[in-house]
Amino acid sequence: MATDQKLNRTMTLVPAISTVMGTVIGAGVFYKASSVADATGSTSMSLFVWLVGGLISLAAGLTGAELAAALPHTGGMLVYIERAYGKLASYLLGWAQIIIYFPASIAAKGVIFGTQVANLLHWGSAAIIPSGIAALVSVALINMLGSKIAGQFQSITLFFKLIPLALIIIFGLLQPGGVDVSLFPVAPGHQVSGWAAAMGGGLLATMYAYDGWIHVGNIAGEMKNPTLDLPRAIAGGLLGIMFIYLLVNYAFLHALPFHAIQGNENTAMDAAQAIFGGFGGKLITIGILISIYGTLNGYTMTGMRLPYAMALENSLPFSKHLVKLNRFKIPYVAGIFELVVAIALMFVGGFDMLTDMLIFVIWLFYTLVFVAVFILRRKEPELVRPYRVPLYPIVPSIAIVGGVFIIVMTLMTQFQLAMIGVIATLAGLPLYFYMQKRQK
Which residues contact 426 (CB under 8 A, 6 or more apart)? Predict the structure, then answer.
């Protein structure tokens, strides 16, 4: 994996924390509450899962930060995986991100965007996919106008992203009534198997809401002081996100009865209307839609550059086309490719199916990153590590255990979905060997 040492190192701590929080906070916090409630079956267990998901993500972030600080190159996780496991593993990660992670992320956001637009305007379910596709295409067109415009748009939507969150938290917690919360949540039935299944299903949902923290490693090469600021950005950003998520979900529980949240993808809209009334709820819902649109922009902006980067190394079929830039220096062919795959996935599954599949696949590689900390400490003890994960080996072990739990519980509860993700990832194997042979 080629690295770039010529980037301007201008990013400081505050923008890095904003990058973590801005990338992570999006559709998940508003629309995964229903899945978590459905999986856990109780208010206490729901909040407990959001807390545990945040702690696992924090352990994961602190662990991954050791590699990010030691290998502060643009490319992030691709660099770490290649260093520890070789080119093939790195290629499969890139392939999985191109075919599953970014397109499924974009498709899922398109589905939920279309769902909320259809509900807000009372258009009916037939309008969901067309509305979602319209959002995907319009965001892609914005990105085709150049990285400066796309970046400015991202900054604007980040501001709107925080408004509905703040209003829901402040006014939601002022609602009359209370929420019964136990410090020792137990899943329905009080059985270990039931508890594990509830935790597994709930964590898989929360991990989508927490996902995105590792992408700050992609800009390590542009940070003034990645040694200190990168781990601080990840830790500070994730702690802030966890606090916000707990408050938002507590506000949802204040505004709506628990059974009205379970399996209800319109939880955010219903809670907003319960808190602010009909007109106020619609305004908050519009703010949430802007938030989703901004997150969609961020994943589109990042996603189109990955096939371009791999094509620069002639690692993909039709690489000579994927490296083409438009007059704004944007990889437009790569962008169109990702857009087409995302639209196709919108017809394949709904929001939860898409997000569960992408989280399963990406956590396979996240777990490999956590194990890579141990591997590289043994293989490359001389590697300069300006930052070392605190409480080693406890913190990385927590991250590994959390990752293995998520993977195993997905295999146990959603085996067919997991296999689709595995097969799609392994489909990159023959392509890798074909491209290697062709290059020789």
Answer: 92
d(CA 207, CA 359): 7
Q: Give pLDDT tens digits for 167-196.
A: 888 888 887 766 666 655 654 544 556 777
The span from the CA of 401 to the CA of 127, in Å, is: 42
Whose tokens are 């491209």? That residue is 435
Decide if 417 contacts 200 (C-beta within 8 A).
no
Q: What is the CA radius of gyration of the chain?
A: 21
Residue 223 pairs with which residues in a beta bridge? 11
Work out the end-to-end distance of the chain between its first and last CA atoms, rounded to an integer number of angstroms. Answer: 18
pLDDT in tens, 148-160: 777 777 777 777 7
**Are 114 and 406 spatial neighbours (Cβ–Cβ below 8 Å)?**
no
DSSP state letter for 318: T
Stated pTM of the model: 0.85
Residue found under tokens 């777990």: 367
Q: How far apart are CA 132 and CA 342, in angstroms?
A: 11
Identify the CA nearest to 76 among candidates 101, 99, 52, 51.
Answer: 101
Count of beta carbons in the 10 Å neighbourhood of residue 155? 11
d(CA 56, CA 370) in angstroms, rounded, equals: 12
User: Rounded to the nearest 10 degrees, what angle do helices 13-24 and 267-303 cross at?
Assistant: 120
Q: Return the ∠ at Cα 253 (arms to 278 and 58), rounded to 5°.
A: 120
Place of tokens 């637009």: 117
- CA proximity to 407, closest of 357, 352, 373, 349: 357
